[in-house]
Amino acid sequence: MKKTALITGATSGLGYEFVKLFANDGYNLVLVARNENKLEEIKQTFTNLEVTVIAKDLSVPRAANEVFREIEEKGLDIDVLVNNAGFGLLGKFDELDIYKQLEMIQLNITSLTELTYYILPKMKERNSGKILNVASTAAFQPGPLMAVYYATKAFVLSLSEALVEELNDSKVTVTTLCPGATKTNFGSVANVEGTKMFSKAMESDKVAKKGYEAMMSGKRVIVTGGLNKAGALGAKFLPRNLSAKLAKYVAGEK
Ligand SMILES: NC(=O)c1ccc[n+]([C@@H]2O[C@H](COP(=O)([O-])OP(=O)(O)OC[C@H]3O[C@@H](n4cnc5c(N)ncnc54)[C@H](OP(=O)(O)O)[C@@H]3O)[C@@H](O)[C@H]2O)c1
What we know:
Blueprint: E1 4-8, H1 13-24, E2 28-33, H2 36-44, E3 51-55, H3 63-73, E4 80-83, H4 98-126, E5 129-134, H5 147-166, E6 172-178, E7 182-183, H6 186-190, E8 202-203, H7 204-216, E9 221-223, H8 226-237, H9 240-250
Parallel strand pairs: 1-2, 1-4, 2-3, 4-5, 5-6, 6-9, 7-8
Helix pairs in contact: 1-7, 3-4, 4-5
The chain binds NADP nicotinamide-adenine-dinucleotide phosphate.
NADP nicotinamide-adenine-dinucleotide phosphate binds next to helix 1 and helix 6.
């Protein structure tokens, strides 16, 4: 029987790359994002697979619950959950719109947490399943000028690593993908394209493939790219005030 993967943020960037990777391996797909036309367009390209599209704004409270209810009503069993949808914003905390920042928390943290909470029990029951949570190298240090974004990704990494330990007597795996700057729509949405941190952005297909392979092999955390790996390692040893200063520096203009 074919397995089913649920991917949030499936319409562009890393999410769309994941869609292609799962499709290539013969998975049925449940695709979640806001843009219904784009979701339908993607569905049409995979005629050999069962593709379910759920158009949902996951930055709205209870949206994740509605996604789960739709899955349940359709009788879909999720073998792989990819919590990928997310966005960032460049700017000082007190100068950015508070409601946009709260939407970011709802999407990057709350919906990811809820979907994991709803889908995990059945995976545990079956003693099989994979969860891939997309964090960021932002998870490793405080991020002045993207303070809330960095904090959301620290949450994702912390939650995911804790779940790995809670699940160590089961075959369910949780993998955290920590990309650095990657060429997707993220840069323009977050307004970071002109910053130093985006001067060496990686290709999205390469980043997604690394994440996909890490998830398939049940790896705990994957940081993509040599420079990003070095940065993540550095952040472990640098005092937090210095790594925050460095993060502020790279958030500045090229
Ligand atoms: N690109 C980078 O440099 C980078 C680096 C580190 C981590 N990441 C992380 O990678 C993940 C994927 O981002 P990306 O780089 O692929 O960016 P992207 O190209 O902007 O893709 C974001 C995806 O999320 C969906 N999405 C956005 N807001 C949503 C909402 N409110 N409800 C439901 N879906 C929503 C978008 O589709 P719709 O517009 O159709 O809703 C789109 O499919 C994010 O979690 C991001 O934080 C990215």
